[in-house]
Amino acid sequence: xxxxxxxxxxxxxxxxxxxxxxxxxxxxxxxxxxxxxxxxxxxxxxxxxxxxxxxxxxxxxxxxxxxxxxxxxxxxxxxxxxxxxxxxxxxxxxxxxxxxxxxxxxxxxxxxxxxxxxxxxxxxxxxxxxxxxxxxxxxxxxxxxxxxxxxxxxxxxxxxxxxxxxxxxxxxxxxxxxxxxxxxxxxxxxxxxxxxxxxxxxxxxxxxxxxxxxxxxxxxxxxxxxxxxxxxxxxxxxxxxxxxxxxxxxxxxxxxxxxxxxxxxxxxxxxxxxxxxxxxxxxxxxxxxxxxxxxxxxxxxxxxxxxxxxxxxxxxxxxxxxxxxxxxxxxxxxxxxxxxxxxxxxxxxxxxxxxxxxxxxxxxxxxxxxxxxxxxxxxxxxxxxxxxxxxxxx
Length: 394
Description:
Largest sheet: 9 strands, parallel
Number of strands: 12
Number of helices: 13
Strand content: 5-15%
Number of domains: 1
Order of helices and strands: HEHEHEEHEEHEHHEHHEHEHEHEH
Structural class: alpha/beta
Helix content: 25-40%
Distance between the termini: 25 Å
CATH topology: TIM Barrel
CATH architecture: Alpha-Beta Barrel
């Protein structure tokens, strides 16, 4: 997840986290007073990346599930497509790095998590297909279809976060939906979780095939300006088409599989969604997705530093926006446990529940001293009734 307040690509767990006993105790007291102002059903989830220790071996899976069970985590969002690769057995994409050739991480974690009544949602990086460097495997989609790689207005193909596919190309949307469909057909996942389901920024979307499609549909020659309202709306529609196609494919195979997404909540929350970072910058119209029912649940990445007053205020402003734009669908707010102290993670959880939102998702739940500390803190808190993601999403 960026993620410029979305998921960082590489995480360091080398620091030792020391908790302030007084601050943690104060946060626990505050949380115990949430009471009737909190959501009736409190959902706890966590993202587990494929970048570091979390689910890459049987032992890592055992440790992650034990930690989730202790913390009352009801759903693990497991990164099974990281860089146009597969942390499962795939016919279309190369095997992910860091795992034994004969090991199927997704199958293993589903079996063990389900035994503990913990859901597993397959977290798929949809449009970002590579981070740093260049993929060398000839099976990688960037090598099979270089014409599908997104370009900026100057013809560059590498965004700050890496290589992206261009959703303005119909074949791209079909391919990504096929990747997701393969997972749903072959694995007993509880959900599909979409990430990087957006453009890298306003200046992107200029691949030759996408421009050709835009010109054909709109009858406009030349190259549109990055600020052209018609062009921006067309790009929003291309991303929405991808979400719509994924949903159609998934529900046709297994109607009860939940569709969720980690969505953008960069900067502060404006009064009007049209001025927001997802809508105006990366053309990710998640408000429309909620309205149309394309998502069963939204997991916005509200990654803010609680120790910074301006960011703490922004965190709460976004909670207001989530309530306003959810269209009756559940919102599980993404909280960054790496930037925040444990006591500040608890304060943000309290704010989420007081806002009447349905729950939270922790980023990230990979093995670390921080995970141990957060688990200990959350395990000692009495929240409202804990829910599974399907209890309100479907």
